[in-house]
Amino acid sequence: MQLDHIALQGFRNIGAASLDLSPKTVALVGKNAQGKTNLVEAVYLLACLKSFRNRHWRDLVKHGEKQAVISAQISGDSLPFTLKLVLDVKEGKSIYKNGVKITRLSDFLGLFRVVLFCPEHLSLIKEGPAKRRSFLDSAICQLRPYYASLLNECVKIEAQRAALLKLSRGKRTDPALFSVWDDRLAGVSVKIASIRADYVRRLQEAAPAHFSRISDGKESLSLSFISDVYREGAGEEEMKAAYLGLLSENLEGDIKYGFTGKGIHRDDLEVKIDSFSARGFASQGQQRSAVLALKLAEGEISRDMTGRPPVYLLDDVLSELDEGRRSYILSGLAGKQVILTGTDKDQLDTAHQLYFVEGGCFSS
Known about the structure:
Oligomer: single chain
Radius of gyration: 22 Å
CATH topology of the largest domain: Glutathione S-transferase Yfyf (Class Pi), Chain A, domain 2
Distance between the termini: 24 Å
Structural class: alpha/beta
């Protein structure tokens, strides 16, 4: 998969820009706050339809403009195609493939795939489970487009169950009132947890080798999936029945606190280095090596499941790594399309294409 051309209008601080991109390494060089990350963000939006920096998409529209437009020409698995994303302050978001509007998210996700690596990801290991769930979900959504609809459905069901829990507080409650919502919640939760577990298995197959090479074979990495819902070796119906039992056991506590205490919202990717928790015991260098291994594994899985590698986005991450880790990640991405940003031209001198960025303008 390759991004051949991208054009932006009214996006962040970019009034208008049009860039032809090398199929190899593209470097964006400039001082901070000039627009480098804005371009990376635009590319990420074309793959995931969400920003990795801002929760409110209206903030992506340049001040004083009514809309932002991102257009791209992409070489995919078959014929080249175009993607266009319009962010209109009044009308909302619109997506087009080859000029035809896409109305379902599942028809959009997976058309264009990326692997993003930014400085915030370096804290993936030491932060809480929510960050690691987000890492899993973002990667999976690009590979299994229907997965996003499962996540949305689960959020809605949990909200309905939470509302019923709050109404039941302080009252004698018939557990049968929850049976419909519990059954629906269990059904979708088992599907989500099973997909996450499968993805973690794929990570476990790919990531340890990268970690071993980064550490010169001195340390080992292992990954496991922690879940209230998923049970290794069990079928969907067995897992569903077990989770329904867990919901029943915890109903009194759920009513007391007004939310569902057990579920996929507690899932976690456990990372261990030499059999010790990376979150609790690993050094900063070890944690960064683990994140590098996870990100490179993410790209491998994307390639293996689709037949073509994704586009790699490295946003100002090289400056955060030492020389050894920097060299390893660049050598691991050789021959793939990589868009990377930085302030130091010397660190990016191996790029096949160089753009200088200043005030939202791009020059070669």
